[in-house]
Design goal:
- With about 290 residues, the protein is α/β, with parallel strands linked by helices.
- The protein has 2 domains: about 130 residues, 3-Layer(aba) Sandwich (Rossmann fold), CATH 3.40.50; about 140 residues, 3-Layer(aba) Sandwich (Rossmann fold), CATH 3.40.50.720.
- The chain contains 11 helices and 12 strands.
- The strands form 2 sheets. Strands 2-1-3-5-6-4 form a 6-stranded mixed beta sheet, sandwiched between helices.
- α6 links the parallel β7 and β8.
Length: about 290
């Protein structure tokens, strides 16, 4: 039996095991996907273990996407420039890092009809997910505005983006003034932080004192809960908005194709992820 892991901290909220195990079953593969709670201190040993012959690879999630990129043997495609990965493939003992978040995010934006070419897009955060969003949006021709607490991390993202892509990158401090300046006339707001992720249902990266941009599409990369506080606030303001379930499925499908070299059953994966989320939420009372 081949194994695939999800390495992150925390991982209890994840529906990836349900989603991928349903896909393996649909493909009639005797594989197992498991979530492994992995602290930053544990990460190096967990990655080394993936070299074992029973491991096909892994997904990497918060907060390890940048750190894991330094632990694999080789970075493929955009990951070599991006410096962040979410997928590891064990190729006969050689660990290769990929970033399927870029394609997953871009595909889901397209599915929602979001066009940012020649327009401003605000990214909240400067971690691994923000890097993927920045790369995807720059390829779409967006004017990027990164809002983050660590300005040097934001500038690092600006430095790694391909020259000539997009319209430019500006970095703003995570303050009310910074958010207001960054969001002026924005066509898209992306939450690339874990703020609002289960079990922090009431968390949000956007202060109530600042109105959301009037014509923006609000995209929260968080998939659990299905509707975060940020998404609900955007919908209440009459804006179009969505959570990250579509991105989860698409990046997972791209990762699955790398591990198995099979066509991923996207419909099966989406249905399994949705059912797992609905089951979780039926068991957890909301505080809002």
């Amino acid at each position: 039996m081949r194994r695939v892991a999800l390495l992150g901290f925390p991982v209890a909220h994840s529906v990836s095991p349900t989603m991928h195990n349903a896909a393996f079953a649909a493909l009639r593969l005797p594989w197992r996907y498991e979530a492994i709670s992995t602290t930053p201190e544990d990460l190096p040993n967990r990655v080394v273990a993936l070299r074992g012959s029973d491991w096909a690879g892994a997904n990497v999630t918060v907060p390890h996407k940048v750190a894991a990129a330094r632990l694999v043997d080789r970075l493929a495609d955009h990951a070599s420039l991006l410096g962040a990965i979410n997928t590891v493939v064990n190729s006969e003992g050689t660990l290769v890092g990929y970033n399927t978040d870029i394609g997953g995010f871009g595909a889901d934006l397209a599915a929602h009809g979001v066009d940012v070419s020649g327009r401003s897009a605000v990214i909240l955060g400067a971690g691994g997910a923000a890097r993927a969003a920045a790369w995807a949006l720059s390829e779409m021709g967006a004017d990027l505005r990164i809002v983050c607490r660590d300005l040097s991390a934001g500038r690092e993202i600006a430095d790694i983006l391909p020259s000539g892509a997009g319209m430019g990158v500006q970095v703003f401090p995570w303050t009310e003034a910074g958010l207001q300046s960054a969001s002026e006339d924005a066509a898209l707001v992306v939450n690339a932080t874990p703020m609002g992720m289960s079990p922090d249902f009431d968390g949000t990266p956007w202060p109530k004192s600042i109105p959301l941009p009037r014509e923006a599409f609000v995209y929260d990369m968080i998939f659990n809960p299905l509707r975060t506080t940020l998404v609900e606030a955007a919908l209440a303001a009459g804006l179009r908005a969505c959570g990250g379930l579509g991105m989860l499925v698409e990046q997972g499908a791209l990762a699955l194709s790398l591990w198995t070299r099979s066509m991923p059953p996207r419909g099966v994966m989406h249905s399994a992820a949705m059912a797992a989320l609905e089951k979780q939420h039926a068991q957890i009372p909301y505080s809002r």
